[in-house]
What we know:
Helix content is 19%, strand content 27%. The protein is built from 4 helices and 12 strands; from the N terminus they run βαββααβββββββββα. The strands form 2 sheets. Strands 1, 2, 3, 4, 6, 9, 11 and 12 form an 8-stranded antiparallel beta sheet that branches.
Amino acid sequence: MKCTQSFATPLFNLENAISQELIHLWKRTILDYSPSFKPTSLGHNKVLESLHQFFYWKDPVIQQIAHFCHMKLAEIIVQTSSFDQATFESLIFDYQSWVQICKDGGFLACQNFPNSSWTGFLCLDLDESSLSDKNNGTIVLHDPRVNANQHQDDANSRWKWPFELCSFQFHPKPGDLIIFPSYMRTESFTYLGNKPRMMIWFSCWVRLPDALCVMPKTHYKLREITPFIFENSGT
């Protein structure tokens, strides 16, 4: 009897994706801009965010952050898509991107990121002691199979991986990058720490040059994909 592993969802967790030197540099640069950050409408006054064009700020350090996240996403698209190299190199990437600073007692309600294909977050700072509590500031990615668990008995509640119904929980450390499809719903449990948690979030939509652009034109293009991504992908 043949079993098909249908409806899979790709999820990428890159631990220690950047060096401590870069983390310190990126944090210092972002803190210079932090007085302009505002409370997010999805949380409360303990969660502050920058404007959502962070990747397009002209600061060279911020451009370094943008390029890093962009290149990691490009590698993922090569792994998960059927583009040939010429088509891949012609893709246009548009981003919404923002810095999020979560203070002691901050949380975020459940949400997803419509009108984009991929979403990611990069952790730059937090109170390291918060990692000892599995419920402190946990970021949850919920199972996208809506209503699949409306009836559970002793059979489907004990499915083996990769079929089990579950959510993924992350306690990101500085340098960790998580990238996932934008249809997945995510939330953040209450974060408790003497030091705020700093993360960079981004959502991306990707199109071919002749495709209709349906998103706001204020989001400019990032086209910094280099051939080595494709050549080294094993595709």
